Each structure stands twice: as structure tokens, then as C-alpha cells.
Amino acid sequence: MIEYDGHVHSPFCPHGTKDTFEDYIKQAVKLGCKGMTFTEHAPLPPSFDDPVPDKDSAMDLSDLNHYITELQNLKEKYKNELDIRIGLEVDYIEAYEEETRLFLNEVGPVLDDAILSVHFLKINDRYTCLDYSPGMFNEAITASGSLEAVYDRYFSTVLSSIKADLGSYKPNRIGHITLVKKFQKRFPASFPCLQKVLPILTEVKKHSMTLDVNGAGFIKPLCGESYPSSDVLRKAAEMKIPCVYGSDSHSYKQLGSGYVKLKDQVPLTPPAVYPE
Asked: Which family does it belong to (predicted)?
């Protein structure tokens, strides 16, 4: 039984499936889930140019109100069966903090929950999508000079996301902090990663934030582990950092991904209520 899934996508995801909200909800109830947060990719800052070929990394701004309205109706419809929370997965993008803050100030009052994630890295004055494809990841390695330089750039950007002033509606949960390992079977690291992640855990603890414990990596053929990885989870548990399970589902069939493997590694709790 999954107590809570705090990272679920929706039919509003341009690079996901067209599974309906109710497909996800009914599957969650079937799995014995008590609650879930829909965390669709928030619209990107208006002046940011999505670097992926199909420009489909996030929900379009014109769809945001429809997304929220549909979930408000479903919260009421299923209130006796499932704790449904309206959320977003917000991208932290270096140099776009002000646009992100303004967006959060607008949408924050109607959200129940949110995640702050890093997908985009600025390398040599150009942005790349870290997890789009092995090919794009390889281009990032070439541009950075080494695999380790990409890891360092990613972890420094995650650290910046924690420290950034994004206003009073800044998400309190940091998303999949070892996403940089998504293609590790093709690009294996010859250097230890835990020491690189420790400053992130320290800063999460300092700011009383929580971690997204993401099961999606288990079903990614070139990854094979959770985000964060087990060594990082052990350290997070030792530091008593609250951890929220998320399947990162882009299809209702992916709900519960990795949960069985994760529930014995670190205490998993439902997300806290988003700031009012």
C-alpha cells in the first residue's frame, strides 16, 4: 500500500501520455493510496527558450487555469476516497529567478503543494535539458569538458535553487536531486558522488526543506536506481531530513514505481501543506 504519492503528472504534460486525471485517481485508489499530489510541469518563464527540439518540456501557460479548475472539481468529487492536492513541479532556471518569483506569487495562493526541480543547466551561456536524451546529455559533457563537470554544474545549480529567493510561495520540496545520474549506465561516473551531494543535504536541512524521493529512475533503462540514490537516502535519513515519495508518473500505470524498494530505505511522509 502506498500512503502518499507526492509527484504525479497528468494529461496536461506535453511529453507525457493522455491518461486522464481519473485514470490516475482510480489507479491510486486501487493501490490503496491515501493521497496524491498532481505536480504538472509549471509553464516555463515567458522569456526562456525551451532547449528541447519539440519545445514540450512544460505545460503551456494558456492551459494553467484549466488544469487548476479540473483538479478543484476532482478534489470535491473524490474527497471521501482520496486526498487530492493541486500542485506543480516548478523549474529552477539560473538567471530566471525574478520571472519564477512573479509566477509563484500569482499561482501560489491556489496551490496545495509544489516541487522545485532542476532540469535545465546553463553551460557556456547556453541552456540544455539535462534529462532529455542521452544525446543531449553527451553534448553537455562535450560543452563542459568532462562528465564530472556536468555533475558539478548540476549539483551547484540544485544548491542555488535551495538558496534562491523565489518569494513566499517558493516550493519547500526539492525534486530528484540525483537526476544527473539518469543515463549513468551509458555514462558511468568514475568519481564518488555522495560528497558532491552533501552540501545540498546540509542546505536542505538548514532551510527545513524536504526531499522528493523519486522512484522513476528504477524504470529508466539507463539509470536503474532512485533519485536520490540509496547512499544519499541513507545520509538523508541520518540527518532526519523529511522525505516524500513520488512516482514521477507520466502514465497511470507508473504509479507506485519503486515504492516497495524505497519504503524500507528511508521514512516516507506525506508532503506538508503549501504556505498560505
From this structure: Belongs to the PHP hydrolase family. HisK subfamily.
